[in-house]
Amino acid sequence: MTSPDSQRTLRVLHLEDSELDHALTLAQLKRGGLDVKMQRIDSEPEFLRALEQDWDAIISDYNLPGFSGLVALDLLKASGRDIPFLLLSGEIGEDAAVEAMRNGSADYLPKNNMARLVPALLHAVDANETRRAHLRADRELGESKQRLRELAQHLQTSIEAERAAIAREIHDDVGGSLSALNFDLAWIARHSDSPAVRQRVASALETLTLAIEASQRVMHNLRPAILEQGLVAALQWMSARFERRTGLACRFSSDRETLDLPPGVPLVAYRTAQEALTNVTKHALATRVSIELTVAAGTLTLEVSDNGRGLDRDDLAKERSFGIRGLHERASTVGGWVDLSSGAGGTTLILSVPLQAAEVAAGMAPSHEQELASAQVNPSNWGDL
Ligand SMILES: Nc1ncnc2c1ncn2[C@@H]1O[C@H](COP(=O)(O)OP(=O)(O)OP(=O)(O)O)[C@@H](O)[C@H]1O
Ligand SMILES: [Mg+2]
Q1: How far apart are CA 260 and CA 56, in angstroms?
Q2: Domain finish residue from 135, 162, 193
Q3: Which ligand is nearest to the CA of 347?
Q4: For site-directed labelling of 261, which of 27, 76, 228, 250 has its Cα 20 to 30 A away?
Q5: What confidence tens digit (pLDDT) does each residue in 120-177 have?
Q6: Of 45, 82, 52, nearest to 67 (Cα)?
Q7: 264 lies in which domain range?
Q8: Does ligand 1 have an atom closer than 6 angstroms to the CB of 305?
């Protein structure tokens, strides 16, 4: 036990009606080597006033005229102050001692056994400090986790905004220039009689077509314009494209054809399906995938299942893997969450979003004016995604 005695003066409030007992107690503490500053009081109003000051401990008699140790303990609890409380009294009987301890008294000491006083006081002060240090550490850890969560969410939103801005630039600058080039090359082809020139132009147009397709592909990956046609259509399209690209059977089903979702939710669901499918190609060794979209009891559920090798805790703890961690953060931006289950039959990833919570999350978004100002870069404002 580290004793605070050698480091500082202990401030002790003493609830005691006998001047003599107070002097004896003080002498005992000093004999025990404690540097102690003690104040004696013996009434409720004095006690309440004293509680406004800082104390390292309270030592209290059990019976006081018009007041009692147990009442003082209750008042201490009600005040919310975190000060160790020790009962130092004549014989009070086992029941009363137990009740006092149950009510939060750190210890009970009979006045005829003062030898225990110093160790008991030091122990109570020490235990209280340790407990407070734990509470402080827990609180700081909680705050730091919360800050990290907010940062992660902020990063997700910034990444989407950045992607949308790049997609827009590609669309306006690169796309615009390519279209103008296309137009000019077609004009040259129409106005030239030279077969060599027309052949060159035809070849240039072919290259240009590839460049236009490439820029559209990049744009799509940056910002899924298909979402403007609704989440159901977008996921249908995603699963068909996945099947074509990978050769894995991918089945999409939904219990509705269209969904009216709060802003932000479709993009979260879309990115979740995208990451789940990427994981299937990268890790699952599956032959079949299914994507299911349902709304039941006001909750949107997106389920992506594969029949691959499954995953375990170690997979999810990989230091350099951020896909699934990012999905948890993404889901929380709209008040939802992600569950993963895995077994011999493969892996299932489920995104759940209570739609009312998502409405609230959307309501906490920037004000209308701020939205208008940021509409140029905020993808969740595009086409009411
Ligand atoms: N469908 C799946 N089948 C089997 N294992 C999977 C599946 N999805 C994920 N895993 C395992 O879980 C790990 C973590 O996935 P996560 O998506 O978080 O990261 P990652 O895909 O490795 O990297 P990235 O950060 O690029 O997404 C993967 O490395 C893989 O071992
Ligand atoms: Mg991944």
Answers
A1: 60
A2: 135
A3: 1
A4: 250
A5: 999 999 999 999 999 999 999 999 999 998 898 888 888 888 988 898 889 888 989 9
A6: 45
A7: 226-385
A8: no
